[in-house]
Design brief:
The chain contains 18 helices and 13 strands. By secondary structure, the protein is α/β, with parallel strands linked by helices. It folds into 2 domains: about 200 residues, Rossmann fold (3-Layer(aba) Sandwich), CATH 3.40.50.10420; about 300 residues, no CATH class. The strands form 4 sheets. The chain has a 7-stranded mixed β-sheet. A two-stranded antiparallel ribbon has the order 4-5. The longest helix is centred in the C-terminal third of the chain and has 33 residues.
Length: about 550
Amino acid sequence: MTKQELRRLLKERRAAISPEEQKEAARTIVSRIAASKEFQRASAILLYAPMPGELDLLPLASIARKAGKPVAFPRCDPEAGRLRFFLWEPDARLQPGAYGIPEPPSHAKEYRPDARTLCILPGLSFSPTGERLGYGKGYYDRFLAAFPGLAVGAAYEKLVLRELPTEPHDRPVSILFTERARIDCAAWAKRNGQATGKAKPSALQTRITSLILAGKRRLFGTAEKALTVGEQTRSIRPLHAPPILVGAIFVLLLLSRLISPLWTDRRIGFLLLLLLQAVIFALPAALYLHRRGKPFLAHLRLRPPRPDHIRFLLCMPIVMICGGMLCEILTGGIASLEGSFTIYDSFSARIMSLPDAILAILAYALLPAILEELVFRAILCAEYERYGAPVAIGVSALFFAMLHFSLPLFPAYLLLGMLLACATYVTRSYVAAVLLHLCYNLFCLFGQPFLSTFYVRAGSNEIFIFCLTVLFLLFGAFAAGEARKIYHRYARENLDSSHTPALPPREIPVALLRSLLSPAVAVCTLVWLITAVLNLLGV
């Protein structure tokens, strides 16, 4: 499609945006820009007067003036083909100039930008890599060629295209603001294996790069997107590397069962279990992360939760405990809650003394929480969230439930995996998921036997199930309320949310299914199913 055809299409698409949507989008983008570090650090702001249909960012002028920052608007010189900026004073009115665009009055003082000047560009469309499609006159491209400051773009989300036709003289922006997200163009390009508009690779470089990336894309997959960014399509490609990681863990875990009957000393058994878990989880995860490289580490959310997450984290263990027990009762009856605590349906915790209890906490509670969350909530969620957070939550929970090789407990672990993944996204913290997982393991290790004694002596299964249901619903509502407050704070702080691209609810099942259409997933499922059936039969 030529630039002229694309401009016509985009103008039609922009005209279809209702006035209410335009106002809401402009209001949101103004808030995002005003709260951004780029705006806060700027020495001056270069704005534009909107034409009909364009984003109206004029409120930024008042915000900047109140912050003591000069504001300048452009004036076109058709004869010289140049764009110059002139300072705006609050009592001055913009007057129609060249092409009917409002400009500063003739007596306004010209502004000379410096390295800290922030220029906000208009445009029909932008790409996430910073490419811009203007109106064809080239004024801003010529201005940016000598502009020493930072150029950012602002656009309706519906008009952001994954790729735009460019020419050698086109100048990209560094940051793009939409009503849905703030996009760092260089980081987006690096994450998606694309070149930014700052340096166009040669044909030979492009060919070599494509050959190098071909194997990586085949292994780690890529999402096929539609015209607009954030819009998921039904042509999602499956990922192969993450299920290979899970399959390696499954194989190592099954091989470890050959060792478990060999130990007779309780404490040696605890120490061996610690060592086995390091080999089963830590070693494959370390190799995987080494293969992915250092940039991938930034997506793992290896940070602690914030103080304002505490109330949410206090509610979640009760939701997990009650929800897990209800699922166990649903699939195995209330008698399934009795018995000793086992991990991976293979290793039973036998606690007799205080030293045994300490070792049991390390082997059955703390280390599993750290290592399992690293694999399932940190790595897998980071890999699959390119298709949307719901897909990442569903896939990570599915593999987590399969890890335990138990058909009766599969629903319980599936629910727990989904709750842990949701907690990871709410808090944006892998450490928060580790803490919740640790709390749940500690309850299973020490609390569930006492609870089992309670309901046996109470003599009424119905009352016990009713209490669990009430607690599950009540604390679930509390947790949802706290999550809502947390997301409101994220919105006020203008935190980046590009890790959760928009996904229509009706497309979530399709995206989830297509992301799993990998031979590695089929092998993992077959291994799990055979092992779970054998466990059920007591073989």
